[in-house]
Amino acid sequence: MSVGANHPKPAMSSELWERLEAYTIGPEDASLSFAARLTRENRWSPGFTERVIGEYKRFCYLACTAGHEVTPSDAVDQVWHLHLTYSRDYWGQFCPQVLGTQLHHGPTAGGQVERGRYYDQYAQTFRSYEDAFGEPPPSDIWPGAGRRFGVDPRGLRVNPNDVMILDKRLALLGAAGWIALGIVIAVMIGVIF
Length: 193
Hints:
Elements: H1 14-22, H2 34-42, H3 46-65, H4 74-85, H5 87-99, H6 112-133, H7 145-150, H8 175-192
Helix pairs in contact: 1-3, 2-3, 3-4
Transmembrane segments: 170-192
Keywords: Membrane, Transmembrane, Transmembrane helix
C-alpha cells in the first residue's frame, strides 16, 4: 500500500512529469485496452477511469519525488494493482524508462499499528500532493482518511451475474425509494425470467 524511493526529494522534475503524461499503460494495439479493462473491472465510467489513471500518474510522481513513503487512495491503488499485472510493461518499460527507478508495492501487514502508520502516510501524501501540484487531490478519487481506512477496505469484488447490488441510498428516500426499488426488482425479475 505504501511506497517510497529511498532518495532525497528533488525539485519539481518536469522531465519525469512529461514522461508520465506521455506514457500509455499496456499495449496500444490490444483489443481490450488497459483503460477499458480497468473500467469494466471497477464498473467506472470511461471518463472517471481516465481521471483515475491521471491520478495514478500523479501518485507515481510523488512516490519518486516526495522523499517519504506515499500511500494511494483506493481508486489509485486499483490502477496500480492492474498495472502490476502487466508485468512486462510495468517492469520492462514503466519503471526503468518512465520513472527511472523501481516502484514496489508493499501491502500492509495489518493490525492497528499498521493502520495508524498508513493513516499518517496518507495525510502526508495529501500534503505532498498539494505541494507538488498546487491544489488538493480531487475528493472523489482521494477521499479523506476516514473513508480510505474505515470504509474502503470493506469493499468486495462481486460478479453482477451472481448477485444483485442495491444502492443503500434508496432506503434513505423513504416511500419513494422503496417504490423505486420495487420497480427495479420487478424489472430485473422480468428480464431474468
